[in-house]
Amino acid sequence: MEHPQVRETDPAVADALAGEVRRQQDTLAMIASENHVSEAVLEAQGSALTNKYAEGYPGERYYAGCEHADEVEQLAVERAKELWGADHVNVQPHSGTQANMAVYLAVLDPGDRILSLELEHGGHLSHGHPANFTGQLFDVEQYRVDPETGYIDYEALAARAESFDPDIVVSGFSAYPREVEWDRIQAAADAVDAYHLSDIAHITGLVAAGVHDSPVGVADFVTGSTHKTIRAGRGGIVMCDEEYADDVDAAVFPGGQGGPLMHNVAGKAVGFEEALRPEFEAYARQVVDNAEALAASFADNGFEVVSGGTDTHLVLVDLRESHPDVSGGDAEDALADAGIVLNANTVPGETRSPFDPSGIRAGTPALTTRGFDEAAHREVGDLIHRVVDNVDDDSVIAEVRERVDELTDEHPLYD
Ligand code: DSN
Fold first, then answer.
1. What CATH number should be reported for the domain whose range is 279-410?
2. Architecture in CATH for domain 43-275
3. What angle do CA 215, 216, 222 make, to 5 degrees?
4. pLDDT tens figures, 49-70
5. How far is the CA of 173 from the centre of ligand 1 (A)?
6. Are 118 and 175 in contact (CB under 8 A)?
7. Which pTM was predicted?
8. How far is the CA of 124 from the centre of ligand 1 (A)?
């Protein structure tokens, strides 16, 4: 993949872009929130729509010349409605966090109460972390997973809702490997007359493909990002019933954003079209099959897999039992040297620092896009274990790197 115009104008940036394409080709992308979009999505994101200001919504813009922006946004909205079955969709949020911000702006006032999953247990910064605007503007309490099983403790969640009386309960997670029982969280929210926001950023693709139960039609608001398992252009999305449509739209623009990134909305539209094709369901199923194979390989090698396995696209490993002297950061660094790119992650009951936690999180969406099957994921699981067992042994890391080179050559990414 060349960038000839960039090269002519700006060789330094062209070198970095070429380096990034090579990096993606030559490494195994296992950060659970990443994927490889199609060249069609890349092209749409690099289109002339980046030049266009289009504040407002289709047919009601604040600037002239929005006819093509309107077409693209309407296509993205219609396709999203078909994918997720939502009454109302807003495709303008610049990111998943801004999608969440729109919901909070739509229905909360500063000082209102949010009940959400703790970050260490798989939650997200934008669900109320003190370093995020949500933790600064709102009164936040958090629920946890059961320390024994690694599954959400729904009864404790309901009890916490009773005692805290939140204005909104947030479900949907960034490092939770199990299917979520949306209706149980809805019941806990209903019992205290709270809204329910379900942030499905990580599993948008699994939900769209019908591989996971959908919170659409259960929760009041469903948000997500559009570049993870759904593999569309980068950004966020909000879905809700018609009754909240005006409030959500006003909270996205002008409440939280100015002009939408219309080139990214185009990337969303193209990726959604691809996700509506029958082969996307097979892709999403393979993502989960591959994660199960990865989890099985980890368990066979003696890693402690949080919750004992996975129903999703990700596997969370707690290194404390099997490798007490290896932090998540040590593992992440050694794996990166071997060409396997994943992230250190906090685990339930974390005892290290969030900056160098006790676990690693590995996801399968990107490798599945490259055609890696279950057998390949089992082998990758073995390679990961071998590196974590030998984080200080350069010769082992070099041997794994050689095998990674063969695997990446066998699964070319972009032309
Ligand atoms: N950065 C994403 C993740 O890795 O889960 C969430 O925003």
1. 3.90.1150.10
2. 3-Layer(aba) Sandwich (3.40)
3. 85
4. 999 999 999 999 999 999 999 9
5. 9
6. no
7. 0.97
8. 8
